[in-house]
Amino acid sequence: MATTIDRSDLVTRLADLRARRPGLALRAARGDDAARRELAAIDADVHGYERDIELLALAGAEERRLAVVQAERNAAEERRRLEVSFAEREAELTVAYREIEATIAAFVAQAKAAEVVAVELDRLDGALGLPARACRIRARRGIVGRVADAVWSRIGWPFMLPAMPTAPLVDDDGGAS
User: Fold this and answer.
1) Residue 2 falls within a domain, yes or no?
2) Mean pLDDT of successive 10-residue stretches along the chain, which has 177 residues
3) Owning domain of residue 86
4) Does residue 135 belong to any structural domain of this protein?
């Protein structure tokens, strides 16, 4: 089983060895061979601990560098994921806009057809001697009012509503209101 190298433990051992060194150096200088051998062993251990501390510092720096590289990779991956999500939402919006444009085109065609019929009703009122009902104006106001009401109440988009009736264009009986 591998043991974990603790920097503080190495520093403590190094300080202990350095504290023992002056006394041994004095004894070795006086000719004590055992002190000389112990001093050589301490110097070797000091050198080894210093090398281990340097290696730990290098390993820490490498670990931090790798963490930065991984964070950059993670950020790039997140950006790619967000870009894909953005592109998908953008495509959905384009499809929705196309459907809205098709609906508007169909609505405009139906509104023009309703106006043509309303103009014909206005003409027939006069030809039949009936009181003028202003079908064309009522049709325009009714259509605009219903569209504004739908946008306001069903979609919830606030804007100034025209002062127009918002009653259904067709009664429950199926006739024009």
Assistant:
1) no
2) 66 84 85 88 88 87 95 97 97 94 94 93 87 86 83 71 57 59
3) 7-95
4) no
